[in-house]
Amino acid sequence: MAWALKLPLTDEVIESGLVQDFDASLSGIGQELGAGAYSMSDVLALPIFKQEESNLPPDSDNKILPFQYVLCAATSPAIKLHDETLTYLNQGQSYEIRMLDNRKIGELPEITDKMVKSIIRVVFHDRRLQYTEHQQLEGWRWNRPGDRILDLDIPMSVGIIDPRANPTQLNTVEFLWDPSKRTSVFIQVHCISTEFTMRKHGGEKGVPFRIQIDTFKENENEEYTEHLHSASCQFKVFKPKGADRKQKTDREKMEKRAPQEKEKYQPSYETTILTECCPWPEVTYVPNSPSPGFNSTPNSFPVLEGNGSPTHQPEPVVQVADNLLPTATPQDAQQWLLRNRFSPFSRLFTNFSGADLLKLTREDVIQICGPADGIRLFNALKGRVVRPRLTIYVCQESQQAREQQPKHENGDAAANTFFVYHAIYLEELTSAELTEKLAQLFNISPRQINQIFKQGPTGIHVLVSDDMIQNFQDEVCFVLDTMKDDTDDGYHIILK
What we know:
Blueprint: H1 2-26, H2 40-44, H3 47-54, E1 67-71, E2 86-90, E3 95-101, E4 116-124, H4 127-131, H5 133-143, E5 150-152, E6 160-164, E7 172-177, E8 183-189, E9 209-218, E10 224-238, H6 242-256, H7 259-262, E11 272-273, E12 275-276, H8 330-339, H9 354-358, H10 362-369, H11 371-381, E13 390-396, H12 399-404, H13 412-416, E14 422-426, H14 431-442, E15 449-455, E16 461-463, H15 466-470, E17 476-484, E18 491-495
Parallel strand pairs: 2-10, 13-17, 15-18
Antiparallel strand pairs: 1-3, 1-11, 3-8, 4-7, 4-9, 5-8, 6-7, 9-10, 10-12, 13-14, 15-16, 17-18
């Protein structure tokens, strides 16, 4: 009986204890936690956070860069958190870039009291346009002759020395500056983002660009080739006053958003800080070879007055194909890409050796480089040679053969005379092209060839025209006879 009386009492005690605990837990709801409620260092010390930190590169957060570049233009407020900032610029307006020295005391002593060189570039942000940068810039040059994409506003700049702008590189400027002194460079961008859009029908979005700054120090030979630091930022260019209107539009859109939505976007900063990046690959520009008609080549023979023949016929030179070998190092592969006009893709294939490139299939190359350049790169990798539209073989008639020909009526002269023929490859099938090719063989200027004739029936001389060349049979053979023009220093050439 006593046990039965105690059971309800015990239940009441337990129930009252639970109620008190529940009330105590509710009392904390709605109240702010004090500074001593928890320690963030204790939370970060948990094993799960330690494991994540081990995967990060060492000193990634504590690394202090030697230089910092600040573009004095506001960032857009319509950029989401964790996305790269975007800055709007007006076409042709001067914008300041502050070149700041962030070195600690004793850091990089080799540049103390010395100059460094910085190269500023305006490049494409989209990977698709980076692949065709050379073609895009050449198209812009054609549409805007005499203009530059990037210019320095030298009168407004402070602390820069020896500013230069290469006429062949419209998007690049360079200068020297002393990190220990105040330096600000003012730049002007003359292209607008909509000039490089695929379809231009109005209302389209412009493509983003990047401003990249690479800084170098001197080497032992006093050449600025040793890389120190690189940084870049993303921006778009509008027509004059267009950047201000776009900035205002973005700001008004953000003001209309709900407070919860605004938290997902970055605030607009008054300046744009360029973030660290990889250095821009140096491209070695191979100059275009001049017209072959004005060059002296080993595979040429001289023109003699009258119908004479050369005293010495040189051996034909075998052209060695520039094929990429599997044993080529990544550096050799880069040089091969530049020599074969694939410089827009050199940055993409930076770490590819010859074997890596040769392993790519046709589908791989087209997917990476696009249809046009992909097919061209694949054919170059496989060493495929494009067959010319027309091939003709020519030989200069010798004086000895002409003297012996009347004496041998049974054809023995042709059998006993040795001729060396030269191949001429024609693509345009015009008389002007044939004139240049023949001038190359004769080692003279094309202007010295007055007329080209073809010997017709009964020995008549027919003027060679474009239509005649287009009706030549492929791999036809001609013997060349030269006649000196009495009126000037030119020549007439007869194809027999």
